[in-house]
Amino acid sequence: MFQKNKNLQVTLSDRNVISKNTRLSGDFQSEGDFRIDGKIDGNITTSGKVVIGKEGIVNGNITCTNAEIEGLFTGILVVDDLLSLKATSAVNGEVTLGKLMVEPGAELNAACTVKGTVKQMYHDESKTQKTA
Description:
Layout: E1 15-18, E2 23-30, E3 33-36, E4 39-46, E5 49-52, E6 57-64, E7 66-69, E8 72-85, E9 90-102, E10 107-114, H1 125-128
């Protein structure tokens, strides 16, 4: 009745967890996600998601696909897609993002640049000219 599929492969994204009361310095690079509940002084580069927990602190640069911030971030933040700022978050520095979601109470003290495609408008003069 039930058959086992021996070809079934499970792929899990790597998850890097920086626990509370942990302090790290340096540059970190990964294909997986980051969860930061401790303190990092340095740079993080990932094609995944970065979550800074309520007690998390990051001083440095972050480049990622998505980010969710509940704690404190100071530096340059580049998020290709969605940046989500929770009510307890504080972001200082420079931010470049695709989309932004902000809960009431979040602090955003940063120069923001929103990525996106700029639609060029074409003006067809033949349609707007009137003839007598």
